[in-house]
Amino acid sequence: MKSINPLGRLLPQVWSVSILALLLLLFLSLPVLAERHYVNHSWQGKTLVVATSEGDIHLSALNHSALEVLYKTAAQPLQPSFTIAKTAGYISPHLDNEKKYLNFKAGKISARIHKQPVSIDFFYQGEKLVEEELGYRQTETGHGFRFKLNDTEALLGTGSRVAGMNRRGHKFPLYNKAHYGYGLESEQMYYSVPGVLSSNHYMLMFDNPAKGEVDLGKADANILEFKAVAGRSAYLVVGGDDYKDILKNYTQFSGRQPLPPRWAFGNYASRMGYHTEAEARQVVDKFRQLDIPLDAIVLDLFWFGPDIKGHMGNLAWDKNAFPQPEKMIADFKRQGVKTVLITEPFILSSSKRWQEAIDENVLAKKPSGEVKDFDFYFGNTGIIDVFDPKAQKWFWDIHKGLIEQGVEGLWGDLGEPEVHPSDTIHQAGSADEIHNAYGHQWAKMIHQNFTKDFPNKRLMLLMRSGFSGSQRFGMIPWSGDVSRSWDGLKPQVELAVQMGLMGLAYSHSDLGGFAGGESFDAELYTRWLQYGAFQPLFRPHGQEHIAPEPIFHDVKTQAIVRRFIKLRYRLLPYLYTMAWQNSQTGVPLARPLFFSDENNLQLIDDSSAYLWGDNFLISPVVEPGKKQQQINLPKGKWFNFWNDNIYSGGKKLLLPLTLETIPVLLKAGSFVPMLSRDIVSTRDYSSKDLDLHYYHHPDVATATGQMYEDDGASPNAFKHKKYELLNFSAQYQGRKLSISLDNKEHQYPGRPEQRNIRLIIHNWPRSNTRVTVAGARLSAEKISHDKDKKLLLLSLPLADKKKIITIK
């Protein structure tokens, strides 16, 4: 007889039941994704309200290229926006009610709302930008959105991270958090921005500052998913004709960076930190003695206490170390040097203001209503509730008192906040609900009160953490406590450019590196400061065991760094013009290479170089001992800034290197205004004598440029018509070059009555040149030609509003 396994017939059935049970468990563990069905629609002013079976959807047009989408359910009450400025002007859209969908159109951008089931697609000038996959969804742990991605699009943005330019395939935390001593990799840093810029020419911004995450196609290759534990259930879609236009459209409603004071673009003396007034005075004096320009000195922790730990929250001068702070500040100012002070939002229980903070009720609370205290690196502490009006007034009054003493710049540090327990309760919500907006709100508090109490001054505000839209409060972010190493230098272009793509155009780094380092590396330091000459701010800063200031290093290092700092000051007319243009358009100062050739997707991954305004290409040297550097040169003709060699773009360029320079290239057809002489601080700034460089190439038939000037200090100078705008243009045809200088002028303090321009035309080989100005021949003594360098130099007094120079 054949033996029979009594379980033999049952095993397949048991196995099937097990699989079914497992699938059922998996299904039950997933969030419930009920389909939304259209019920009706109505209008609330300019906002379309679409009622669905799962709540209401609010659609608004922020401008002709940007839409706001807000989901509101019974479980998700309406919350205010941090991204959208109160001054944003909503516009009236047009609506077509079709059988299967609603077509919501506002200028160039439109949304198609499908009715059964409800989902939304977005279009720009008829071309699809992006579409919801599941749209808004709620889970047991929070809520979020899902969008479809196509196979080829690249995604940039999400703020300050070291993960490569194309961030598709990554999943990032959205929680501002310090990363001390970071180098080549960092997926979570000081400044999260919950948004992306797509190679498909749209921006998608999630208007929610809560703790969350964004998945850019990691879990599912063709899905972008945003999740947050709480907060506003809204997102913003922005289109544009090109990437610059997208940024213009985004910053039109999120706000643009106010123009900083001119001195903010100068050189800073900064370290962690100057212990005494005597030490600070010696540093300033040594900069002057060594002929290195200087515009500001930054006082770190020791201005309010003798040690790193135990004193945070004093927020008042340590008179033992700084016995005469007001006199010190005034003396520095007479030398053309402004004083910048650090502050933090933490009040230690060991500080002199702890009891005052308790009595004034300005600290965040526990759920029980008691003051929330906790331990972190600097000691036991509470945190100021910057969302509470009474706390804002208390905190601002301290800042105001310091400014009245003569302080010119403010530095808000640790504003992630660096430590922020989840059970901390602010007036606007719990820590996790508003974490990423803490620095944003702090900056808003300072900006609004500064504007009210000091209406004739411009704010200089250094902060390392904020949210989308923080640029409108004048926030100048930096990339945090970077490793003092080559690995720390390498990602700085990526960090600065990515932040600029999110509207934060002033992101920069602690030049030379901040954290660690066993000994001074002259090559690393030199390369970092050479690159720094082409960053929005020039601020060497680091831990004091290795001096961040060039004045304390060897003669060779000083000579190279001095040259680059002086070059930066000579380039102030160009740099200041870029800053003004950013204040008007939102286009960043440092721009990715693909801005020059938007059809070249290979350039999207390139962070080895960047565009510095419309004209320069900068390629920092980020490896030791390099003898040559490869550059993906965008299309067009390019000049070597140092020797006027000309290269054809659209291919890879290999340049030899020396320690004395880094690769700096200029696009053919560029106008570059520069000061004619060196200055030691912006106190001595004057464009009365100006060198205007034009980089001529016969392939460039037309070119334009600008130079913006005001007094460098008055807020709203442009709005109040207290400025000059010099417009330059060039036309080349039939061996004749015509250059127009058109001056749109208004009165402002310090405006030169007459500007003496030396027009320097590069790549002009002909010495037998006839030059006329406004039809009259220019005299020979005002014309010179360097045959070997192919430079034509013309001396031109510019008193008229417009001059046309003809060269043939």
Compact overview of the structure:
With 808 residues, this protein is of the alpha+beta class. It has 13 helices and 47 strands. β3 and β4 (66-72) form a beta hairpin.
Task: Provide the descriptors you would attach to this structure in a database record.
disordered N terminus; TIM Barrel; single chain; 4 domains; globular; 808 residues; 13 helices; alpha+beta; 8-stranded antiparallel beta sheet; 9-stranded antiparallel beta sheet; Immunoglobulin-like
Which runs of at least 5 residues are low in confidence (pLDDT < 50)?
A: 1-32
> CATH superfamily membership of the largest domain, which one?
Glycosidases
Give the total of beta strands: 47
CATH-defined architecture of the largest domain: Alpha-Beta Barrel
Here the CATH topology of the largest domain equals TIM Barrel
Mean pLDDT: 94
The tally of domains stands at 4
Strand content: 25-35%
What structural category arises from helix and sheet content?
alpha+beta
Oligomer: single chain
Strand order of the largest sheet: 5-6-7-8-9-10-16-15-12
Count of helical stretches: 13
**Amino- and carboxy-terminal Cα gap:** 114 Å
CATH class of the largest domain: Alpha Beta
Description:
This protein is an alpha+beta fold and 808 residues long. It has four domains: 38-254, Immunoglobulin-like; 262-586, TIM Barrel (Alpha-Beta Barrel), CATH 3.20.20.80; 591-660, Immunoglobulin-like, CATH 2.60.40.1180; 686-807, Golgi alpha-mannosidase II (Immunoglobulin-like, Sandwich), CATH 2.60.40. The strands form nine sheets. Strands 5-6-7-8-9-10-16-15-12 form a nine-stranded antiparallel beta sheet, with no helix packed on it. α6 (389-404) packs across α8 and α11 runs parallel beside α12. The longest helix is centred in the N-terminal third of the chain and has 20 residues, at 10-29. The radius of gyration is 29 Å and the shape is globular. Mean pLDDT is 94; it is low at 1-32.
